[in-house]
Amino acid sequence: MRIRTLPLSFTLGAMALSALTACSGGASDPPGAGGSQGASEGAAVDDAGLSPAVTGTGGNASGGAAPPTEPPTTEPPSAVDIRTVDLANATWLYSVGGFDLPVEVKLVNGEASSDGDGVLITYSLGDVVYGDVDGDGDADAVARINRAQSMGSQGLWYTWLAEGPDAVQLKYPVAQTGRCSTFVESVVISDGGISLTEYLRIPGLDDAIPCSDPGTGLKKRTITIHTEGSDTWPVQTEPVAAWGGLCPGPRWPDTGPGLVDLWAAPSKTAATAAAAAPDGGAVFEQKDAALTQRDGWSLVGFRVFGVESDVGGTDMACAWALK
Predict the structure, then answer these.
(1) pTM for the complete prediction?
(2) 99 lies in a domain?
(3) 130 with 139: CB under 8 angstroms?
(4) Does a structural domain hold residue 320?
(5) Residue-wise pLDDT tens digits, 73-110
(6) How far apart are the C-alpha atoms of 20 and 55, rounded to whole Å?
(7) Upstream peptide bond of 77 is cis (omega within 30 degrees of 0)
């Protein structure tokens, strides 16, 4: 499948704010004017961040109460058109390996470079696809940023959400592609989710396949967005409820059977990924990853017994467990 590449931007859009100014003329205040204090002092702030008009009681020639004044109306900011945002000239967050704490990468005309201990590191904008990722009716984007160093290369797919007048990047990559690694064949956005088709390299079975070629482990999954307050996470909905970001990989190859309560994001309001069961599956401790550290939670791998895998049994999903 060919994925169309178009320009986008990091976070653009602003809401113009207007301030009300009161004018005085002559010896008496105009009807509805307040006392000697400024209109902004002590005024309440509405949901749009604007101070409504302040009404007073004195100042008209007759000495009676001033007629009430209508507060100004403000139009909500229109949603950003994600297709007009220019990611090729934007500041990205990039997590080396998909799991380090993110660093800022400023792309200029789709490219950037840095010096890593005497080794040239280059970045470039890859494919961009559009669609409603979070189901709010506004188009979002999923885009790939590539990183190359010496003989190695890696591409990470990130989600950009239309948040009111802004386009905001989630810091958690949802897919990874690279040499002698996972190959992302297609990314399609539809019906409030991201459909990913990937090929994993199966240890042993795919060892003889050149690194320039994809592995044989077909993996299909669907990802959407879970938001709670200021936190936003990618979550998997198919083939099972699970974490929608990358899994660091198991620390140990084997584990004893048994499942604990697991969630698709580090919140009990997220979808339940698995329920505690002594023999219904297995949990795998994951390698340390700075990006997926969350107070009170641990990201673990899990497998539910009886669920068929397309990747020779080496596949597992990840989810969050309470510590």
Answers:
(1) 0.75
(2) yes
(3) yes
(4) no
(5) 666 667 799 999 999 999 999 999 999 999 999 999 99
(6) 13
(7) no
